[in-house]
C-alpha cells in the first residue's frame, strides 16, 4: 500500500467509526474508500465489515452504562437473534450476486430513515390507541430480518436497527444506540468469520481501517452521550440517513 492509500484508509476508517457510534452507516464511507484503492466490490464489502467490528465494540463499550432492556425480549435473546441473522446473511452473500441486493440498498435506507424519523410519533399514537410495545413474535421477526441484512451488507445497519427499535416500542435513544452498537458487533463477528473463511478479506487494508474505526468508535460513543438535546441528535441521525440515501440513489 502507498502512503496516500494508508492516509485514505485511516481518515475514512475514523470517520466511519464516529458515524457508526452516533447513527450508523459508516460502511458507506469505508466501502467506497476500499473500492477506490483497488479492492474488488465484493471483497470491499467483506473487508469493510471486518474493519467496522472493532469500532462497534469500542462504541458499545463507551455506551455500556446505557445498554438496558426495553421491549419484551431479553438482551441475551436479542444477541442470539443477531448471531443467527448475521450467519444467515453471510451465507446468503456467498450464494447470491451482490448486485441483486445492492439495488435495494437505497430504498431500504430511505424506508429506515423515514421510520426512524416518525418513530416517536408513531409509538405515541400506538400507546394512545392502547397498543404498547410489539410482542415477542414481531420483535423476533424484526430483529431477525435486520440482523440478516447486516450479515449480508453492513451498510446502513445502525440506522435500520434504530428505526426497528423505534417501531417496536423502544424510546430511550441512548439505550437504543448502545444496543445498536452491541448488536452490530455481534452481527459483524459472525459475518466476518464466515467471510474470512471464504477468503474474501483483504487483511492489510482491514487492519489499517480497524485501528482507525476503533478510535473513531470510542470517540463517537463518548461524544454522542454528551449531546443533551436528544431532538437534535435524532435530527442529525435522520439527516445522515437522508444523505446516504441520496448518495446511493445517485450511484445507481
Largest sheet: none
Mean pLDDT: 82
Give the distance, in angstroms, between the N- and C-terminal Cα atoms: 29 Å
Shape: globular
> Helicity, in percent?
over 70%
Number of domains: 1
Cα gyration radius (Å): 17 Å
Give the count of helical stretches: 11
The SS-based structural class is: mainly alpha
Helix-strand pattern? HHHHHHHHHHH
Which band does the percent of strand residues land in?
under 5%
**Strand runs, count:** 0
- Please mark out the parts with pLDDT under 50 across 5 or more consecutive residues, or reply none: none
Looking at the chains present, what oligomeric state does this protein adopt?
A: single chain
Explain what the structure shows.
- The chain is mainly α.
- The protein has one domain (3-251).
- 79% of the residues lie in helices and 0% in strands.
- α3 (41-62) packs parallel to α10 (203-224), α6 (105-128) packs antiparallel against α11 and α7 packs antiparallel against α8.
- The two termini are 29 Å apart.
- 51% of the residues are buried.
- The mean pLDDT is 82.
- The chain crosses the membrane at residues 7-36, 42-63, 75-98, 104-122, 129-146, 152-170, 182-201, 207-224, 231-250.
Name the features.
single chain, 252 residues
Question: Secondary-structure blueprint of this entry?
Answer:
Blueprint: H1 3-22, H2 27-36, H3 41-62, H4 75-95, H5 98-102, H6 105-128, H7 136-152, H8 157-167, H9 173-197, H10 203-224, H11 230-251
